[in-house]
Structure formats: C-alpha cells, structure tokens
Design brief:
single chain; 117 residues; mainly beta; 1 helix; globular; metal ion binding; carbon-sulfur lyase activity; metal-binding; CENP-V/GFA; zinc
Length: 117
C-alpha cells in the first residue's frame, strides 16, 4: 500500500446508501497501483463515478472516479483489506451529510468532495 495515497471517510448520501452505513472509509489509488483480477460489473451511481461489484456474490469491490486519465482514480473501501489498523483518515468529505451524533474527525473537513463538488 502506498502511504502517500489519501485515506478518507465519506458521508455523502449516495455512499451511505451504497454501503448501508453512516460513512464509507476508503483508500484512493491511481490506476497504475491497482491490479483487478476476475469479473466485475459496474453501476454508474453518478456522472463519472462507477461502483464495481462481484457478479457472483454481489460484494462491492471498488469504485472508479472516472475523470480524465490524469485524474482517474480507484477508491477501495477499508473493508476490502484483511489487516486492521492500517487506515488513518487524512480528510473527511461530505461532512455536511455526517450524522449529527457523530463527532467531526481531527482531520481536514470538506462539506462536499475533496475536489470541491
């Protein structure tokens, strides 16, 4: 895992629904850092954003933020990793959708995405 890649919590309503959770912790990787093996099926949940899942069991595998080649990135949810304790968030996005009973994290906050959406 590349320590320079950002880790985040997202509380966007679409993310919350897709993950059936109050937030989605994830890592961001450049396409060159990811090898995808096996079949996946994509679902465009919003313009330029595709969520991929396993066609056999339905498990979420990763998401693609499909910008131009230089901005394309893959988001891999924390739950995809076997080792605990490697995740330390570097920012929180979509904080405006955070549950009121959740305290803000100690990291930079963004009311929308980190790209300013």
């Amino acid at each position: 895992m590349n320590e320079d890649e950002p880790e985040s919590l997202a509380a966007r309503l679409t993310c919350r629904k897709a993950h059936a959770s109050a937030f989605n912790p994830f890592f961001v990787f450049a396409p060159s850092q990811v090898t995808i093996e096996g079949d996946v099926v994509g679902w465009s949940s919003s313009p330029g954003y595709v969520r991929y899942f396993c066609p056999r069991c339905g498990s979420r595998v990763f998401a693609e933020n499909a910008g131009a080649d230089e901005t394309r990135e893959y988001e891999v949810s924390l739950g995809r990793f076997d080792e605990a304790g490697v995740f330390v968030p570097q920012y929180e996005s979509w904080a405006r959708h955070r549950e009121p009973w959740l305290e803000p994290l100690w990291v930079p906050q963004s009311e929308a995405s980190r790209q300013g959406d």
